[in-house]
Specification:
Layout: H1 2-16, H2 53-61, E1 66-71, E2 77-81, H3 84-92, E3 96-99, H4 104-116, E4 123-128, E5 133-138, H5 144-157, E6 161-165, E7 171-172, E8 191-194, E9 199-203, E10 213-215, E11 223-231, E12 237-242, E13 253-257, E14 260-263, E15 266-267, E16 275-278, E17 286-299, E18 302-310, E19 322-325, E20 328-336, E21 346-350, H6 351-358, E22 361-362, H7 397-404, H8 412-426, H9 433-443
Parallel strand pairs: 2-3, 5-6, 15-20
Antiparallel strand pairs: 1-2, 4-5, 4-17, 7-20, 8-9, 8-22, 9-12, 10-11, 11-12, 13-14, 16-17, 16-19, 17-18, 18-21, 19-20, 20-21
Length: 448
């Protein structure tokens, strides 16, 4: 019996320490402080997607005169342009302009040509705005003959297509070998969303097809929700409908460790050069930077397009976990290569597209002064900060520990709430000292 209890504690500690606390920010339920006020459950407080200055300029000037935008090291927008008039307009708007040879139309045409070629699993490509190139990568599973064939395709497109070999393999980040949370494998939750009638967990589509059952325990006894309306391959998102219908209090909070949480205030599209954070049930909180957009990845299971490429690490089990910055939801962990020891590339499904396609709204923090949502900060704000902090308080941890280790009390509420608090207090998932320092540096503005 003692051994069984230890296994339960270890598993819950490992599985519960995610940005969404196993199944979204709501899983801290009543333990979240109420300053600023939390949403009224069932009322979808939402903010419109925030767009950066560079994105707005690109939209105004068009794809033939621009070739992407990014943030420089100081967080200032830079826009790639193809003519002097466009450069002058960018400068008048207060942004920096960089003259390039190939337009966004050229880059997208190259990506389309790559997409039309015979599919090769283990490859990816993304638009590298900073270097005005399309970067094609092949992992260690790609044979020499397949790589040679793709190189020929790239050469026919033009010299602005760059070919790179990469270590590791491009895989989705689900892990079926560990104790599972769903019928398809162990994943992480992203953000809580609502359609105004019911609440859902937004997570990765590859975590399980429609009808997959999600559990709060690895024995499959405590059902939490059911997957529906997912898209994979093509996209990588799905909904898990709460069996109880509601996410509960604190649905707008993403836990970040040390008894702290970040209130999600809105949703935005990511920008190249943006500092981001992500959480997952395997590797916890990690920080990195957006390196490219509109990425295509040829996973063994199928091709996914329109992804956000980053240099943040991820590991199996992190799938579906949230990517965010400045209290703004940006992405859901899809897959990548490498791990958090050697580093690697990780791809994210943009949250904005998932919300649009699914017809749901992000549950965000209610503004302190009245109804409606706090405004979503622009993605162009340089170094990331959480926005509004949300300290985690509530039931005594020792009491929860004793209840958790009693198998008779392992129900979905006790298991998730207690396991989440144990994991938060221990902060075992902020493993790398460099990640801890980066986290404290960027989040110090809202720490008590």
């Amino acid at each position: 019996m003692r051994h069984a209890r230890r296994r339960v504690v270890r598993r819950v500690t490992r599985l519960a320490a995610v940005g969404g606390l196993l199944l979204g920010g709501a899983m801290v339920t009543n333990a979240v402080a109420s300053e600023p006020p939390t949403p009224t459950i069932g009322v979808p407080f939402t903010a419109p997607p925030a767009t950066g200055e560079g994105t707005d300029l690109m939209s105004r000037l068009g794809n033939s005169r621009t070739a992407g935008s990014w943030l420089d090291s100081a967080g200032r927008p830079v826009v790639a342009v193809t003519d002097e008039k466009a450069a002058a307009e960018v400068k008048r708007a207060g942004a920096q302009a960089k003259m390039v040879s190939h337009s966004m139309s050229d880059l997208k045409s190259a990506a389309a040509a790559l997409r039309s070629a015979p599919r090769v699993a283990g490859t990816s490509w993304a638009l590298d705005y900073k270097n005005n190139q399309v970067v094609v990568r092949g992992d260690t599973t790609v044979s020499a003959s397949d790589w040679s064939r793709m190189t020929e395709v790239a050469e026919r497109i033009g010299s602005f297509v760059r070919m790179e070999r990469t270590e590791g393999t491009f895989t989705t980040r689900v892990n079926g070998a560990q104790p599972i949370l769903s019928t398809a494998g162990r994943c992480s939750a992203g953000f809580n969303v609502t359609d105004g009638k019911s609440d859902y967990i937004l997570t990765a589509g590859h975590c399980g097809p429609d009808g997959s059952i999600w559990f709060a325990d690895d024995q499959g006894r405590e059902q939490v929700g059911t997957s529906l309306r997912g898209s994979f391959p093509g996209d990588d998102y799905s909904l898990v409908k709460y069996d109880a219908g509601r996410a509960g209090k604190g649905a707008d909070v993403v836990a970040v460790g040390d008894g702290k949480g970040v209130r999600i205030t809105g949703v935005a599209d990511a920008e190249v050069g943006q500092k981001i954070f992500r959480s997952g049930s395997t590797s916890g909180l990690r920080e990195g930077e957006v390196t490219a957009l509109n990425a295509t990845v040829n996973y063994p299971e199928g091709t996914v397009t329109g992804l956000i490429e980053t240099n943040v690490c991820a590991e199996p089990g992190d799938s579906g976990g949230p990517m965010f910055a400045d209290g703004v939801a940006l992405g859901l962990t899809s897959g990548g290569s490498g791990d958090c020891r050697a580093g690697g590339t990780t791809f994210f499904q943009p949250v904005t597209k998932a919300l649009t396609e699914l017809g749901v709204k992000l549950i965000v923090a209610k503004s302190a002064g009245g109804t409606g949502a706090a405004p979503a900060p622009s993605a162009s704000q340089g170094a990331a900060s959480p926005g509004s902090s949300a300290p985690i308080t509530g039931t005594d941890v020792s009491t929860l520990l004793s209840r958790l280790t009693d198998p008779r009390n392992v129900g979905p509420g006790v298991l998730v709430i207690a396991g989440s608090l144990v994991a938060l207090v221990a902060t075992r998932w902020i493993r790398a000292e460099q990640d801890r320092k980066a986290y404290r540096q960027h989040y110090s503005a809202t720490w008590g």
